[in-house]
């Protein structure tokens, strides 16, 4: 039996899995809510998406997703406030970036209402799945992949758009020790590094695994030509504080235009935290560590919000970050999560009530 | 009911689709044989592969292939000679390269016997699907993708290995007009360009589409730092003949170590065709075109074998290749296909009889 919410057709699951879930001990992205949003592109257009039970996908072995990596994704979160109201954080920016990624990967762009109205309907159907506990949230994963068939190396003629959700706890626990990469690279000039393309992530696994074997948790990516300029931290943007100035690299065709990154910059501006958006060289960071002006480093992204870095490795030497009072990272993390969870005013207009 | 060939379990399809196939008018990679080889990596090891009916694959929406592009593939062909015997071309090199790709993408390496014995069993079961007509062959697509689940950006714990086959005609028809790319790039230094990783192909679609809109069929990739050195032609390696010398770029972490490419170099050596493996600059090629010393350009790869290039575009100017007698491309193509199809001696030991 199907119903409708805001013109989105709803096919409800016959049973719920929610009683199996321990909401007090959630890991990240391992249990999935009862429903998902499902849309299909065929015959030259995106068909209306539906909320359907979360269930397996069936594909021909020649589906292009298996062969040519034509896939993109987004990540955002839904939060409950004390009243039980549900909020998203800048979801239109996710939709816009999804389409920026789509264009670069030759995937047809998705209409705004398929994303926003579909997501709203999905969250209403799976309202009970949104965690209420501090530090937990409903991680939301919109993604599009090539479901059309054939071995010819060219764009598919059919695509599948899904939003799946997973009640989740923290992405990382504790502080990160990172390795400044001097051999491998994440992206090329003129490549797809600015897109949330699946292939960008698979390419990071092996270098990250090598770093883990050396005792680090993540890699700091550098430019592929000289390995002298700092680009991203694992799958996050990176911020570096030298004395009282917060610095992050400019976005480019190699660097993801992170929503947490740009929110941090707007908060810094409003709170008169000195900040610079400019290229940061490894030499500068090492020098700053040696002369004591390096105060903080942290990664910033939706999944992990703000992840403090405790030390970085560079050419066989480890450099510890100092323990400081008045950390920008802690302050910015509190400010962002208070806005996200409706604990503070939102002068930026970022919160989006469902 | 299941049987066995060389210790590979065979589950035969109950009906065959072969009567629907017009073997006189085959396109590339659009119809698929009755069976496929299917292997699964789980619990820390590759399970024995089986020949099963070619049928849809079912995956959880959180399977990492959809999100993180963790996939690799290979391409080779099976040929029938006049006696009806079946031959492959250097298949062990495909297995070795599959594992080189696997390592870079953090995918567990596949045992040789899973690939070779599995492929042999598959080809015996689908023997009738191998085209007999000149210029046609059975295109063979081995691939591995992340079938383990979860939204965490890290390698999967389960993988699926499949060999699917498609009776196929020519990949390209006629000569190619190509555009020397000056904006977009295929791969980074320290990236995954040398691997047959799915994501490398998706990133090429949009620049190729832009080139097609300008009247070209393929892009000639250049290095991402200067766009001055020639790297690959679409999804092929590239060869350039200046006067009587055949030139191709060295393999690197950005360039695929093509099996057709290295076979051409070995044939050139044995036939005393002067050749050089060195960096080729765009300036050199443009100058050679202007002074008449540029004789030929062609792409080389398994799917298309050798694809002659009729013209290249560079910075809004088109440069035509001359029509010449004694083309190296034609001569090398005949030599390779004669070896592949058992029409000539194989002093290199490349042919592999099933």
TrEMBL record, chains A, B:
Pfam families: Aminotran_4 (PF01063). Transmembrane segments: none annotated. It is an enzyme of class 2 (transferase). Keywords: Amino-acid biosynthesis, Aminotransferase, Branched-chain amino acid biosynthesis, Pyridoxal phosphate, Transferase. It comes from the Bacteria. GO terms for molecular function: L-isoleucine-2-oxoglutarate transaminase activity; L-leucine-2-oxoglutarate transaminase activity; L-valine-2-oxoglutarate transaminase activity. It catalyses: L-leucine + 2-oxoglutarate = 4-methyl-2-oxopentanoate + L-glutamate; L-isoleucine + 2-oxoglutarate = (S)-3-methyl-2-oxopentanoate + L-glutamate; L-valine + 2-oxoglutarate = 3-methyl-2-oxobutanoate + L-glutamate. Belongs to the class-IV pyridoxal-phosphate-dependent aminotransferase family. This is Branched-chain-amino-acid aminotransferase. It comes from Pseudalgibacter alginicilyticus.
């Amino acid at each position: 039996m199907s119903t409708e919410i805001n013109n989105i057709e709803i096919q409800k699951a016959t049973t719920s899995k929610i009683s199996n879930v321990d909401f007090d001990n959630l890991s990240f992205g391992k249990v999935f809510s009862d429903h998902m949003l499902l849309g299909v592109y065929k015959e030259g257009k995106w068909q209306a998406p539906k909320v359907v039970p979360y269930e397996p996908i069936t594909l021909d072995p020649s589906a292009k997703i298996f062969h040519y990596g034509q896939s993109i994704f987004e990540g955002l979160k839904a939060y409950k406030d004390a009243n039980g109201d549900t909020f998203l954080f800048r979801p239109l920016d996710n939709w816009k970036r999804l389409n920026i990624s789509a264009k670069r990967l030759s995937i047809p762009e998705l209409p705004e209402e398929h994303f926003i109205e579909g997501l709203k309907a999905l969250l209403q159907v799976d309202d009970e799945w949104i965690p209420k506990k501090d530090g937990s949230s409903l991680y939301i994963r919109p993604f599009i992949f090539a479901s059309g068939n054939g071995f010819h190396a060219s764009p598919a003629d059919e695509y599948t758009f899904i939003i799946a959700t997973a009640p989740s706890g923290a992405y990382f626990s504790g502080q990160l020790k990172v390795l400044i990469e001097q051999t491998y690279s994440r992206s090329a000039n003129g490549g797809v590094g600015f897109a949330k393309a699946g292939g960008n992530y698979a390419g990071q696994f092996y270098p990250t695994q090598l770093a883990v074997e050396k005792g680090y948790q993540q890699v700091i990516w550098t430019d592929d030509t000289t390995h002298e300029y700092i680009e991203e931290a694992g799958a996050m943007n990176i911020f570096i504080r030298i004395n009282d100035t917060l610095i992050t690299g400019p976005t480019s065709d190699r660097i993801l235009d992170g929503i947490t990154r740009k929110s941090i910059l707007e908060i810094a501006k409003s709170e008169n935290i000195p900040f610079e958006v400019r290229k940061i060289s490894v030499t500068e960071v090492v020098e700053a560590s040696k002369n004591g002006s390096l105060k903080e480093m942290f990664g910033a992204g939706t999944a992990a919000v703000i992840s403090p870095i405790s030390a970085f490795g560079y050419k066989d030497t480890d450099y510890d970050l100092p323990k400081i009072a008045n950390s920008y990272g802690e302050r910015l993390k509190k400010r962002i999560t208070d806005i996200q969870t409706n604990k503070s005013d939102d002068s930026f207009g970022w919160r989006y009530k469902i």
